[in-house]
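1st attempt posting a full record on here, be nice pls
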Amino acid sequence: PVILTGIRIVLVQNIGLATIAALIGGGGFGVFVFQGVGQTAMDLVLLGAVPTVALAFAAAIILDAVIEMTSTKRREAQPA
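the predicted structure (as tokens):
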């Protein structure tokens, strides 16, 4: 469970950092964010930020479920 928790943290952090990759031409949702900031267009900022947050949130929930499943299986396997 500890290793899976570390993987969850790194995955969520990488999803957020992938948005910043637009600064060096990486593309992705960060393009919308930085275009919106440059043009003072909040709708473009939200167009990039909301899917990024949703993706990170979904990844965290899925990995939390996997961590919970593995930890309950481990508890069931141990004798009382």
